[in-house]
Amino acid sequence: MEGDPLTALKHVALREDPPAVALRGTAMAQLGDLNTARQLLRRAARGFGPREATARARCRVAEAEIALVLRDISEPMHDLEDARATLGQHGDRANEAHAGYLQARRLLLIGQLDQAQAILEALEPAALPPASRAGAWLVAAGIAIRRIEAEPARAALGKAALAAEQTGIAMLVAEVERAVRAFEAPAARLLTRSEERLLGLDEVEALIASDTLVVDALRGLVRANGEVVPLSRRPVLFALVRALAEAWPGDVSRELLLARAFRARQVDETHRARLRVEIGRLRFELGPLANVLATESGFVLQPSGARPVAVLAPPQEDEHANVLALLADGEAWSSSALALALDVSSRTIQRALKELASAGKADSFGRGRACRWTVRQVPGFPTSLLLPAPLPAG
User: Fold this and answer.
1) Residue 197, SS3 per DSSP
2) What is the dihedral of CA 263, 267, 273, 276, to 10 degrees?
3) CB 310 within 8 A of CB 213
4) b/e map of 303-323 (b: 16 or more CB within 10 Å)?
5) What residues contact residue 136 under an 8 Å CB cut-off, 6+ apart?
């Protein structure tokens, strides 16, 4: 009966005892009816008695796994943490390790990389079920990719592929293959005054490690020599520094800067005064990394020392590229989960989804709390560098 959900359902279809309800929930999950499966597992967990803590904990773990697949990550996974502890206390090492892997996977989705890595490092790889072992390596690869560490990411993907092949589960093998293709796709676009080309993750890592002053449009920051100036919450300042970096070593006219930063079509003295104020703020934020000098027609970026300047942009520009990057994983997301993962307000994410839907780039199904969003067409290069990650240490 193992692995055959229909046969399992025939055996327990008329039973209402907690073990039978749990088995029906597991079978429904394998058949793809995740909402029904979740309800059955929740009901089974409530039905187990005080002496059946292990069975209840296993149901909680299965329910948490379904929540992850449904991208229902808005609620903290306290139940999963408690279930993991219970399983550990009762010697169920395999399910305890599986619960830890699920915790790490959720933390990766919302960009909490340090916490995800700490959980992964505490796991016993030998205790993980084979399928979870492949998933754990995928989480490790995801952490390395978001940290822009190409070799650790490549090594983790290789181990994930090996682990997936050993399970013989076609869907898992396909999932790993998708992750490898995403890793090998261009991660960013290099922009300079004389050059524009796509970069792989290795090249992005090498550029960041060089002496170049990098204006990173994927994460909204400026960095050089390990120093980081975050400007993601200062869109006007970032628009100014990006325009100046793209023109470097030349200058940029005041009219163009006003158009890029303020979308001003007709320039008057008020705009010029505001530009002077914002340039002053930009000089302060850049500090020792660079200066902004006035020229006859506008302003020019002057990096400290003789270091060159480059701009890292997404492979394809889109106003809501970070939302598309999350939706590109092929799962259906709720708006609240997207807002949590990107650390923005619900209103911001709903406005973005509405614009993506109007542009024919995203679709929704369901209503109210059950509403889910998917990408209509995966963008050309859904770079992982747009996925949530903490700011690099400066």
Assistant:
1) strand
2) 60
3) yes
4) beeebebbbbbbbeeeebbbb
5) 101, 104, 120, 123, 125, 128
Its pTM stands at: 0.82
Element (H, E) at 321: helix 321-327
pLDDT at residue 1 is higher than 50? no
Contact 371, 334 (CB under 8 A): yes
d(CA 37, CA 223): 47
Residue in the structure block whose two tokens are 């628009």: 239
What is the DSSP code string of 369-386?
A: GG-EEEESS--S---GGG
Q: Are 133 and 164 in contact (CB under 8 A)?
A: no
Q: 75-113: buried (b, 16+ CB within 10 Å) or exposed (e) per residue? A: eebebbeebbebbbeeebeebbbbbbbbbbbbbbbbbbb
Average pLDDT over residues 184-207: 92
384 with 364: CB under 8 angstroms? no
Cα–Cα distance measured from residue 147 to residue 135, given in angstroms and rounded to the nearest whole number = 19
Look at strands 290-294 and 298-303 and give their pairing: antiparallel
**SS3 assignment, position 116:** helix
**What is the chain's mean pLDDT, rounded?**
89
Q: DSSP letter at 392?
A: P
**Cα 16 from Cα 23, distance rounded (Å):** 11
Q: Which residue has the tokens 């002057």?
A: 302
Measure the CA dihedral 310/203/208/211, to 10°: -70
Query: Of all helices (H) and strands (E), which one includes residue 271?
Result: helix 269-286
The CA distance from 244 to 310, in Å, is: 10
Contact yes or no for 394/151 (Cβ under 8 A): no
Amino acid at 134: A
Q: Are 325 and 342 in contact (CB under 8 A)?
A: no
pLDDT tens digits along 297-338: 999 999 998 899 999 998 887 788 888 888 887 788 888 889
